[in-house]
Design goal:
Blueprint (H helix, E strand, L loop, with lengths): L2 E5 L2 E4 L4 E8 L7 E7 L6 E6 L6 E3 L7 E6 L4 E6 L8 E8 L5 E2 L3 E6 L1
Parallel strand pairs: 2-11
Antiparallel strand pairs: 1-3, 3-8, 4-5, 4-9, 5-6, 7-8, 9-10, 9-11
Length: about 120
Amino acid sequence: QVRLVESGGGLVQAGGSLRLSCAASGRTFSDYVMGWFRQAPGKEREFVALISSSNSVTRYADSVKGRFSISRDNAKNTVYLQVNSLKPEDTANYYCYAENPTPRYWGQGTQVTVSS
């Protein structure tokens, strides 16, 4: 079992930045691919970014490329999502996940609200 706890969300104006964090516990963090999804009201959950267990590979949704950056600190069992140049359409609940490869574990989410 892997427990994931997100933090760092909040209310920010368009163009602003936040750093989301996801702290993991319960298993060997460095064995897991980590990533983020988001879900806006009335919409399906969508992929945002992932980072490989070795920290060598990252992937991003087209909608966030160049604005968001995922990283991890295996010594701290934490994955980060730096979100820059935020837009109102980035407003969503952001969920951290871990997989190796199954099952996929989820956090409870952290809300990001971007005002125009």
